[in-house]
Design a protein that fits this description.
This protein is mostly beta strands. It is built from 6 helices and 22 strands.
Amino acid sequence: MSKLNLTGPLTFEAIFVERVWGDRRLESEFGKNLPPQRLIGESWEIVDRPEAQSVVRNGPLRGKTLHELWTQYREEIFGDVPDSPRFPLLLKLLDAHEKLSLQVHPPAKFAERLGGEPKTEFWYVAAADPGAEVYLGFGESITRDQFEKALRDGTAADYVYKIRVKTGDAAFLPAGRLHALGAGNLLIEIQQNSDTTYRVFDWNRVDDAGKQRQLHIDQALQCIDFSDVRPLLVQPEGELLLRHNLFEIRKWDLRSAREIASRGQFEIACCLSGSARCAGVDLGPGEFFLIPAQLRDRQLKPISNGTSLLLITIPKL
């Protein structure tokens, strides 16, 4: 194990992903330097996957990948966290100019059998157009056979539970929950390190050639929780939005300097509004930095009015 002495948080280069449902809102609202004339649906902000690697942008570790940090400096940077081959979280920004397909991610008990990875996730609504919705679970009880028939008939949308959302709302999506993101949402997504999605319905959309997107109905039907009826949005408990074995998420309205408690673990901060500074590193809206477990100066200071943040870590259970 190599030793190092870090004096500030780590920032990373974003990875932009083109999606048919994306647009340019990550540029207009968060100042991201998007590639020209492309519809960007996702910005992968912190990721350790074989096909996508976050690269450190600042400090003595500049140019290192997140996987290198995970394998070479686990104790100093991440602290007391569960062992896994890769950093277990993936953090993204999503710009849904159009609604996404109706989909499900597999629970662990099905993922291996289907050749995928389990995926539980959390959505925080950073901005929402008037009337924006999310689709979670079912509006009424339904059997697998009934829903399969609706999928074949093209009427699946009639059975999904629709929830109107506004800026500041949040949703927890355990693996197995049928869901879709409605148009007009700008999200922060915190998820298990996985990229397995089974699409069941794409709102009967076709491309310019009249062809529908690929669906994964057989796999999805094995994974969907058909008892998931009328789920609620996240109900915060003070600053705590969610504590799960995969991740803990808190929201701070930063009116004055606050110290992040040293629990022997890393923290990831995501700025929602305003701006903040920690150990000489600034954070603006839509930006993330990773506060290493070993960092001594853990004070977050607001440097503009109306500063709010999400703080993300892996809880000790």
